[in-house]
Amino acid sequence: MALLNTILIISGVLIVAIIVLYNKFINLRNAVKNSWAGIDVQLKRRADLIPNLVDVVKGYATHEKMLLINITKMRSQMLSGLNSRNLSKTGSADGALTGLLKKLIMVAENYPNLKANKSFIDLQKQLRDTEDQIAASRRIYNENVTYYNTALQVFPNNIFANLFGFKKESVFESNVEDRKNINIKL
Amino acid sequence: MNVEDVIRKQKFVRLDKFIFGETFSSGVFNKTKANSKNKFWGLTGSPDFSKIIVHSELLDWQKDKFAKGLVPFWKRSSFIKRLIIFALILFFIIRPLIVFVFGSFFFIFILLFFFIFAVAFLGIYFEEINNLKQDVVKSEVAKKRGWLYDPAIDEVVGFNLAAMFPKIFNLGDERFVDDQLWGSFDVDGVTKNFYSGIYCYTVINKNSKGGENKVKHFSNFFAINLEKRLPVNFLLYPESIFSRVSQKFNNHEIEVESIEFNKIFAFDYAGRKDEQAVEIVKVLSPAVQLELVDLSKKGKNLSVYFVDGVLIFSFKGKLFKKLKTQLIGGLNLVDDDLKFFDDYLQSIKTIATEIIKKL
């Protein structure tokens, strides 16, 4: 009888521990998903700003056609990466796009009329704010992923994580190398 | 707050003329501030210049008095001589006498008594020097940055803060505010006013013998006037088991994107969650979350009150305890101390900038 009671108590504790762990994994995974949604929103917001920016620049900087084409191309790549939730593709396109947009702002210095254009100034400000928010959202997402992955990997969590089929998530990195490798003919 | 109170606050302090290597007059400086066009803002209204000037002049007067006063005992050449004589007398006259009458154990007891007394005395002495140093350094920082500083305590402001912002200041009894700073900085090209100080209160507990135990608490607060109304008033306070239970019970828990933020902070707000949560999440953008997490690591138990057009940040305990500036050998404000102040203000500035963008 005593043995049965002991077995029942241990089983009860184990079941409660498993439920707590399972809920913890679910909560962390949802937090990772939510923080990804934050990046998604900001990247799409920036993607929405780009056509307007390209339109404004086109009117003044007629010699920057290649740059504008590259921006449009990278925007499409980034959106396609976002839609397929391909982190590496999105990160790569995001890095390249950030570099190209910086280049565009620098190039605008050569066109005084463009620089003074109110729409351009507004778009520039919005773009800068969005870049800041993307950076913050990215940091939060990566921190959340680290929390989640650590929770899955530590003992004895790893046993139950494997049992329930929880998988590690990848961090989101904006590929800096891609920014460097872009050649733009000006 | 009267002259005697201020003097009593520093009554143990004795510093020599080497301490203040330069002419220091916060009274004169604050008089120029009162006459300038700068407008200073505080949580309970504008600063009372007449009071601040009196307090600053008192600080100057104290320093003058100390300058003319006693040389610290360890710097006096006679001190070493007296110490040696005292040790000789102790060992060659008192020791044989005590050992002869009471035995050697009693002499060890006497030595221990002197040791404990000396340690306690030095502790009080250096604590008081440190208090004065805090006042002097803050005064110097204020001068460098063009801010206004009041070194004296103010019970009226403490009372008013508790009445006006009970969520964050209505704690304990015998409240007062010390080391008030008024200043301004640029937020996105616009000048915003800030106000800071140390809020002190006493918690009185009845003990088993029917007596009272008094424990003094301090919190360092910074307030910034956004001059734009926030869509919702709420308090962020340190997460604990109690806050978790209370939030669950009230259905007031809010989860933002950052796991770390959710672990550090709990929410307190009035009204229904479905109405308020959207507005709160809007204010707490990812950049604000990150900055608040970073700021929470700079001090103990950070609480942030978002109320009307004002942000109030409050840390438990005193923040500026370990200042590197040395008073002895001439007052030279160390850059690290200046950076220490700037660092906190920078975080607050970034948070304010990010919030203003959303308003």
Task: Summarize the structure in words.
The complex is a heterodimer of chains A (186) and B (359). With 186 residues, chain A is mainly alpha-helical. Chain A has a single domain, classed as LemA-like domain (de novo design (two linked rop proteins)). Helices cover 83% and strands 0% of the residues of chain A. Chain A has helices at 2-60, 65-83, 87-108, 112-116, 118-153, 157-164, 176-181. In chain A, helix 1 (2-60) runs antiparallel to helix 2 (65-83) and helix 1 (2-60) crosses helix 6 (157-164). The longest helix of chain A has 59 residues, at 2-60. Chain A is rod-shaped. The relative contact order of chain A is 0.15. Mean pLDDT of chain A is 85; it is low at 177-186. Helices cover 50% and strands 21% of the residues of chain B. Chain B has helices at residues 3-9, 26-35, 49-68, 77-102, 104-145, 155-164, 166-169, 241-250, 259-264, 273-283, 286-296, 335-358; strands at residues 148-150, 173-187, 190-206, 212-225, 234-238, 265-269, 300-307, 310-316. An 8-stranded antiparallel sheet of chain B has the order 1-2-3-4-8-7-5-6, with helices on both faces. In chain B, helix 4 packs antiparallel against helix 5 (104-145). The longest helix of chain B is centred in the middle third of the chain and has 42 residues, at 104-145. Chain B is globular, with a radius of gyration of 25 Å. In chain B, 31% of the residues are buried. Residues 6-24 of chain B have low confidence and may be disordered. Chain A binds chain B through residues 28, 31, 34-35, 38, 129, 132-133, 135-137, 139-141, 143-144, 147, and chain B through 255, 257-260, 262, 285-287, 289-290, 354, 357.
